[in-house]
């Protein structure tokens, strides 16, 4: 099943000017991270106008943003994981159900019985001891499409508030009607970003590529890997096998950034110390799809909510076993080299 992600029908009026006052996202990236290749989780979210170096900069002619959510209120209930984590579009005659993007990856989140049985992200969790060649898991990986949300330039993102105290102004700038499904989703994402993290966790919601790079380099330095899962072919929920070639990245420090449910690209990032990162090659049963997956293993879960989705799925208690999860294609992990 597909899930409809917010698309920006008219992000801004791009004015190409012959000046170096502002760098394109790719030039900015390599000016700050010259030895770090840009992962697909980033390149997939760049506006087409920014993907070529024309020795010019992008000027902003209009900071107003129009949001086109499609027919988000009807046509049945769609649930999916991958493009921003989890989203639910409820039937137009029923009460909207909101499952915010960061929830499965938010340590204070408690899963409901419905989400335990119907949330596709539940399959992403597994125990570190179960990571070995030949291990089988039922998974669903989706590919990022051209219709995915895009990054706004930092100078535009800065003009749009991102605070629960500025909700009316946000709705005005994004042309969102108060009381709509889009409005509720925006409020949910902002609320989650503003909630305090658990002990030892540093949280940050990056509203632009530049702000995400600034946050990660301030915490981990500039000699970094930025990695994301790569999906060869999108499939339905099916059986995958861990194959030979798994490897563990060095160190226990990492920042993991999850794409949120928002009209433009906003990443929910959190830094923890007790984290191990793995590269895990997967192949679907029958060989129809291969995935170069990134797995994050949390070695200290003692501060997590005891009713977190991972504990209910894996039947373990906080602080007992390292808990791992795969990253969807449009999420990424930053680790020191």
Automatic annotation (TrEMBL):
> What are the boundaries of the signal sequence?
1-21
> Keywords on this record?
Signal
Kindly indicate whether the keyword Signal belongs to this entry: yes
Report the source organism: Acacia crassicarpa
PANTHER family to which the protein is assigned, alphabetical: BURP DOMAIN PROTEIN RD22 (PTHR31236:SF2), BURP DOMAIN PROTEIN USPL1-LIKE (PTHR31236)
Instruction: State whether keyword Hydrolase applies.
Output: no
What residue stretches are annotated with the BURP domain?
A: 125-337
Q: What is this protein called?
A: BURP domain-containing protein
